Amino acid sequence: EDLGIELVQMMENAGLHLAELARSRFSRLRDVPVTVLAGGGNNGGGGLVCARHLANWGAPVSVVLDRPPNAITGVPAHQMRILRRMGVSFLVEPPASTGLIVDALIGYGLSGDPKGQSAELIDRANGTHAPIFSLDTPSGLDTTTGSPADPCIQATVTLTLALPKRGLLTEGARLVVGRLFLADISVPAVVYARMGLERPRLFEEWTLVELALPQG
Questions:
Q1: Taking the model in full, what pTM does it have?
Q2: What is the DSSP letter of 42?
């Protein structure tokens, strides 16, 4: 807020980098049906940005929300309106088969076990054989303690943002995080300095960095 960097800018960076990471796994996106599971918060908004970029690059994308569309407000609602104007499909339930799942249901604001539609979508995602790419954290993981809730997404890849959350680096989180990457969402070094944090120059070579997880 002090520097004037808006949420919509950081959300755009988060969703774009997740889309880039997903694209790096496949040689032809047009052959990969993508299902984006999105919640109503800013994590969900990042997932909707990811959906836009993947659709622009030729992937057949469908979005499943964990709540009625009219319950989504603010910047995430702005992202949703763009997708609707683009003609991206919004489904009530996930399709029977998919080539990639983007998990953007619940971010670091998790409080207790996922409930209702969010919990059902997590269970259904875990029951598929498709790779799951999670934005910021696997939905259902406590990013402070590293304890998975019931249920919790079992991610193939997790792309976290700006700096890794403590819980992602714990032994308990290792089985649900998958490969862990860190993305630059344009938080300037001065912000970390004002918070008393020393941040190494993580993104000098590229905007995505893979992080090593503890081995059991």
A1: 0.95
A2: H
| CA–CA separation, 147 and 216 (whole Å) | 15
pLDDT recorded at residue 216 = 59
The whole-number average pLDDT for the span 123-135 is 98
Alpha helices in 41-170 (DSSP H): 42-56, 74-86, 116-126
Decide: 153 and 136 in contact? Cβ < 8 Å: no
Question: Parallel, antiparallel, or unpaired for β 89-91 and 208-211?
Answer: unpaired
From residue 106, alpha-carbon distances to 68, 124, 166, 210, 215 in Å are 16, 15, 17, 22, 26
Amino acid at 178: G
Q: What is the pLDDT of residue 167?
A: 95
pLDDT in tens, 65-113: 999 999 999 999 999 999 999 999 999 999 999 999 999 999 988 888 9
Please state, in angstroms and rounded to a whole number, the distance separating the CA atoms of residues 2 and 79: 24
Phi, psi of 173 (to 5 degrees): -90, -10
Retrieve residue 114's tokens. 């996922």
d(CA 134, CA 47): 9
Q: What strands, in cross-sheet order, belong to the sheet with 89-91? A: 89-91, 61-65, 34-38, 100-104, 132-135, 157-161, 179-183, 208-211
